[in-house]
Design a protein that fits this description.
Layout lengths: L4 E5 L3 H13 L3 E5 L4 H8 L3 E4 L8 H11 L4 E6 L4 H10 L3 E4 L4 H12 L4 E2 L1 H5 L15 H11 L4 H8 L3 H15 L4 H10 L9
Parallel strand pairs: 1-2, 1-3, 3-4, 4-5, 5-6
């Protein structure tokens, strides 16, 4: 299959048609499935990214995430759901999702999120991620400087290095350096691990919702 293959798992025909059309305009090879066909197609075609709704008729999308990982371990699962509670985001990421978008997201944000997760970068839509913020850090954050904690927070919310540089008035290269220090100090290897660390240690979390 092409390197830019996306499997869209949703049982609403209108959603499947709309998302598929938007992605094909961007040059993606698109497969569509309801939850009954999702595992079979993921196993057969090895998509790069799987867009997954959480509200499926036969089983919860939370349960489908690890099942997809078992049959297509290289695929990145990006949840696209009408569920926008912080607890939903936490649960999806804990189940193994690489990112989370509400269905109200624009075509541009959807495509941008797909590109990020396909490259191994976790993503949570910033407005949704902002609802997850809790005020106090945890002892596990002690190795980090104040600037590194700021950058960890923004990375966990899904901001890109370029966006972080603009928000903090620093260069992208400086963000890259801080990010490398954060990953080394916290012994993390991927953006998904960083997001899970942030959830586990109160940088972002479900406690506000």
């Amino acid at each position: 299959m092409p390197q830019n293959t996306v499997l869209v798992v949703d049982d609403e025909p209108a959603i499947l048609d709309f998302v598929s059309e938007a992605l094909r305009w961007e040059g993606y090879h698109v497969l569509t499935a309801g939850d009954s066909d999702a595992l079979r197609l993921a196993h057969a075609f090895h998509p790069n990214v799987i867009l997954l709704d959480l509200l499926l008729p036969r089983k919860s999308g939370y349960d489908v995430i690890p099942e997809l990982a078992a049959v297509a371990p290289e695929a990145k699962v990006l949840v696209v759901s009408s569920q926008a509670a912080p607890s939903s985001v936490r649960r999806a990421l804990s189940a193994g999702a690489a990112g989370y978008l509400p269905k109200r997201s624009s075509d541009g944000e959807l495509v941008g999120a797909i590109r990020l997760v396909a490259n191994g970068t976790g993503y949570v839509e910033p407005d949704l991620g902002a609802q997850l913020v809790v005020p106090n850090g945890a002892p596990a954050l002690e190795p980090l400087s104040d600037r590194e904690r700021d950058i960890l927070h923004l990375l966990a919310l899904g901001y890109t290095n370029q966006e972080i540089g603009k928000k903090l008035f620093i260069s992208v290269r400086t963000v890259d350096t801080h990010r490398a220090h954060i990953m080394r100090k916290l012994q993390l290897e991927t953006r998904a691990e960083l997001v899970m660390f942030a959830l586990a240690n109160g940088v972002i979390g479900p406690d506000t919702g």
